[in-house]
Structure formats: structure tokens, C-alpha cells
Amino acid sequence: MLRLGMFAAFLMSVGVVWGQMPDRTPNTRYPYVTDMDHEGAYVLRWGLNATHIWFEVQVKTLGYVGFGISRDGRMVPADVIIGWVAGNQVHFQDYHTERYEAPTVDSSQDWLVDYGYEEAGWTVLGFTRALDTCDTLGDFKITRDTQRLIYAYHTEDPDVTSPNPLIRHTVRGRKSVSLMTTSHPPAELPIDSSVIDFTNDNFSIPVANTSTYNCRLFDLSDVNVKYHIIKMSPVFSPGMEQYVDHMVLYRCRIADPASLLVNGASFNCFSDAPDHVQFCREHVASFGHRNKEDFYLPEDVGIPIGGTGESNLYVLATHYVNELQTPNLVDSSGIQLTYTADLRTNDAAFLSMGNIISPNWLQYIPPGEPSFQQRAYCSERCIQWGMNSTQNALPMTVVGAKFHSHDLATEMKLRHVTKTSSGAYVENPWLAYDGAFDSDQQAFRVAEKRRNVSFTDHLMLECTYDSSTRGFPTLGGWHPDNELCRAYVLYYPRKMLEGCMSWSNYDQLRNQIGQPVNGSDVFNTLLATDWSNNNVMRVNLKHALQNSIENAQCWSSRQDPSYAVDWFQQTDITIQTPYQPTETRTCV
Ligand SMILES: *[C@@H]1O[C@H](CO)[C@@H](O)[C@H](O)[C@H]1NC(C)=O
Ligand SMILES: *[C@@H]1O[C@H](CO)[C@@H](O)[C@H](O)[C@H]1NC(C)=O
Ligand SMILES: *[C@@H]1O[C@H](CO)[C@@H](O)[C@H](O)[C@H]1NC(C)=O
Ligand SMILES: *[C@@H]1O[C@H](CO)[C@@H](O)[C@H](O)[C@H]1NC(C)=O
Ligand SMILES: *[C@@H]1O[C@H](CO)[C@@H](O)[C@H](O)[C@H]1NC(C)=O
Ligand SMILES: *[C@@H]1O[C@H](CO)[C@@H](O)[C@H](O)[C@H]1NC(C)=O
Asked: Does the record's keyword annotation contain Glycoprotein (predicted)?
């Protein structure tokens, strides 16, 4: 229960120039901003340093406002604050939830209010806390993992005379945000900055299929000057956000697109793509309705666009999901790139990594597994092949990465392995890691420290899935019910290498599966397995997947589309010294 006497309160400061509400403009104090809801009624801004994080919430209510960090997105257990402005006073306290009733006031008050005011129907609260408050009873530590943020608000302030002032119907919701890895906007964009839109053209979303992949072509052959992409943003047609599952912009170079393809042409990406489009696979940008924050490249990094010999064909692939088969939906959503002629120091690019899932769904997750691992490799030979350019001698400096997976993924890890002169494999610190992955939040993760990958290294992507609540096997695939294990790694200087994927050779697992296999198709045997009573098969599959022969494929589409293939046994690159992160706590 609330105890009135404990409210932290202070007077509204005077002389502040109130802005227009809501104010989503990043500024020095609050470089990061996100909408917590779909209605734009709850804006969160934040900033941080090595030890502290400070938030501002702007909420369309004159009532009370709640905000916090939940363990798994639910209201309990969670580390929360509640605040409101009444008269000239700001009321604010640090709580935690123990059960589905009024939260409990923390005995240690570690979230501290900086200011609060009401303006034009909005309540604004600013508050600060340590990343690690050391209050293990009331607070959660804020880490580089994806955090499950929760929020609530009410039209009125609590009736503090009531015995249970906070138990009332409120608007509430959740959003996953990675508070410590979000891209930082520059102090200001260069004055010559311009934008280019890659959008759909009044595409009629089909009702016959709930899931549609539409592709649209853009010919940039006449852009003869080299620019740098410095910012990427999604563009949503009004009201269409909920139907746009995600959008990806790919590109490649082909000699004379105009002779082969029609600029602006639109077609089904899977069934109707012209031959040349299949090879347009360099990842440039991606967004979805759950991942719609602007992405800013770091201030010394730009992705080249335009100029002699540069990629000239761009493909926007949009995945529409129309579950309710709503008719008459017309969409022109897409991706906007901001570019400048004021070139930055480093030419960067995305490297796509992961597990190949077509044509035979070469990924298989049995049901009932709380922690099932799938690995994908970018092999040493692929890296060597892809680095065979004029900048051969330079390593790849990794700036950060974006992970992509569906609902079962819980943990994503991009591992980096170096071969020592004695031939041993040593693991470096992870290039990217999310110990609390949420497929609803697939934003770019800026690396804590940049790291170099040399052409004698291996990269390994490790995806962990929780299939414990699924009664059926999950196969690799693009559909939301399937799974993926993907990473898009941003690095410089740009190399020929654009994609570097692998798949476990199930056929070669035949003798390790511990069960007679009909014919040579182990994958079909997996499909036919009854997992409710086959523990031997489970153990053997996991063992086999850790020791399999891996097929690797890497490609480039910027010069003439070209490929390299590779294969190796996973046991050939056994890591002698796995990387162990050390947890640093600032308290005892
Ligand atoms: C980090 O921010 C906190 C809270 O504003 C402040 O007390 C602390 O001095 C800052 N630390 C550094 C190194 O700037
Ligand atoms: C889409 O259709 C509307 C109305 O017919 C039209 O005004 C608009 O220009 C079209 N958009 C595009 C991108 O062609
Ligand atoms: C629906 O999707 C299937 C499989 O992708 C495809 O074969 C079929 O042509 C689609 N139907 C329509 C009406 O688009
Ligand atoms: C590397 O580049 C050189 C010169 O372009 C070429 O002769 C050689 O075949 C390339 N090696 C590989 C592995 O692609
Ligand atoms: C990566 O390699 C480049 C080129 O050799 C070097 O200048 C840079 O300092 C290295 N960066 C890191 C983080 O090791
Ligand atoms: C094995 O394959 C043969 C031929 O395809 C089929 O007739 C038989 O039913 C299969 N046996 C099992 C156990 O799946």
C-alpha cells in the first residue's frame, strides 16, 4: 500500500520553455527515443553514461504514469516507478511488483526523479538511476541484453485517500528495447543531407494469401556520384503498419539493368522474380512494424551508394501479413535512406550470416527443448575468398550487428574464433550478443568495442531456441511459424563478401543418429520421428548437430555475382579456450 508521507516531491521549476508535445527530437541529454505504444501516446526518451541511465516519459494523460523493467514482459516480477503531477508537486517513487496488485515501495529508493510537469494534456517525468543499483530486492540491473519495458497510465491521479489507490483499470503495455546498444544520432546531419525513398507503389495487399512477399525494383544506374548512407528509416503508409511484417532492401550490380528489368516493376519475390533479381542479395537495410526506430550509422562510417562500378539495382522486399484477410488494403510503405556527399572515413557494408534454410528447410528444432542450439558459420576459406580485394591486407572492423530470428529464439551470439600460429582455435570476445533476445525487437546493436576479424578467422553464429511449449517440430523458413538463425554484421572497410552462410549436412549425420534410417534422407527421418517418446533420438540429434559436417556458401553480387563453397567438420575447429564474459558489478 502507498504511504503518502514517503512521496518524493519537489516544486515545478519555473521559466522552462515548454515545447510541443510530444517531443520526439533527440537531443544531447536524450539521444534515444522510442514510442512505447502504437498510438503515439507514450514516448520514451533516454540517455546514458558508463554508470547511469536517465529517462524522460511523455504520456498523454494528466493522471498517473507507470514505467519499469519486467523480467519477461509481464507485470510481475518487475522493477517499476509511478509518478504524477498534482498542483505544483511531482509525486514519484521506486517500486517493485510481487503479485498482480498494487506494487510494493522499494526500501531502497534508487530511481530518482529529476523533474515533472504537465503541459497541453501531457504528463512529462524525468528520472535517473544507476545501471546497477545494487538493490537486488527491488531493482533489475540494466544490461546490454534486450530489456522488457512495461508501461501504464491512467486518466486520473491516484486517489491517495483510498486504501488501494493504484488498483484501477489503466492503459498498459510492453515493449522490448535494448537500452544500451541503440544507435546514437549525430549532433547534426550534414547540411547537404538528402533522402531517397524506396517504397511500394500503391500495392494491393492480397486477401487470398495471409502472407505475401512483394518485391519492387529500383534502377540507380544514373547515380554517378558516390555518396554515403548515414541514416535509415522506415516509411509506413497511414494505417498500414500492422500489415507490414518487415521490409528488406537488397542490392547488386548488373551491367545494364534497363535492358533486362523495368524500373519500378513489382512482383511476387518467390514465384515471379526475374532471374537477375535472385542474385541481388547484399543487405542494405531492414525494418518492420516492431522495429521502426531510425538507424544512424556511427559518425565515422557510411555505406556507399552511387558512383562508378557501384551497385545499381535495388530491390525492396516487403513481407505483408494479412491474417484477417482484410480487403482493399493499398500500401506504399518502404525504406528511406538519408545520404550525404560529405564522405565519412570508412566505407561500410553489411555481411549476411546464418543458416541456409532453403530449399529443403535445412534447420530442424525438435519440440520440447528448453535450450536447443543451432550454429551457422562463416568459414575461414569463405572469409579469405571474400577478402580477396584491393584492401586484402586490412581486417574487417566490426561496428555492430543485427540479429534475425523468430519467436523461439532466446539467445543470440556472434562468436569470433582466431587460429593461433600453433593451429589452436582461440575465441575472442563475442562480436555481438543478446542474452534475452526478443524477435519483436530486431534493431541494430552497436558493439561496445569495435573488433577486427582477420582473414584467418572464423565467425560462428549461435542461436538458442526454446521449443518447450511447442508440440510439433519447427523447421527453418521465412514464415513466422518457422525459425531462422541470421545476423547482419556491419563492418568496414567494405569487402567483396556479402553473404556467408552454412548448413549442417543432415545426410552425413546418418550414422550418428542412432537409429536405422530409411534410405539416405536423414531429414525425412527427423520429420517422421515421434518426439514424445524418443529421447535417444534427441540426444543423438544434439550431439550430431554439434559435430556435423558443415557446408558453407559465400557470395558477392557487387561485381559479377560470384560464389565460393566450402565444407568442414565442426570438430576440426574445436575451440580450446571459449570466451567467458566477466560480470562486472559496481556493488558488493
Ligand atoms: C554519469 O551520470 C551520473 C548521473 O547523471 C552522474 O552522477 C555521473 O557523474 C556521470 N558519470 C560520468 C563519468 O560522467
Ligand atoms: C497512390 O494512389 C493515390 C490515389 O490514387 C495517388 O494520389 C498516389 O500518387 C499514388 N501513390 C503512388 C506512390 O503512386
Ligand atoms: C498464395 O501463395 C502460394 C504459395 O506461395 C502461391 O503458390 C499462390 O499463387 C498464392 N496465391 C495467390 C492468389 O497469390
Ligand atoms: C584473388 O584475386 C586475384 C586477382 O584478382 C585472382 O587472380 C585470384 O584468383 C583471386 N583468388 C580467389 C581465391 O578468388
Ligand atoms: C583494426 O585494424 C586496423 C587496420 O589494421 C587498425 O588500424 C585498427 O586499429 C584495428 N582496430 C582494432 C579495434 O583493433
Ligand atoms: C522405407 O521406404 C520404403 C520405400 O520408400 C517404404 O515403402 C517404407 O514404408 C519405408 N519404411 C519406413 C519405416 O519408413
From this structure: yes
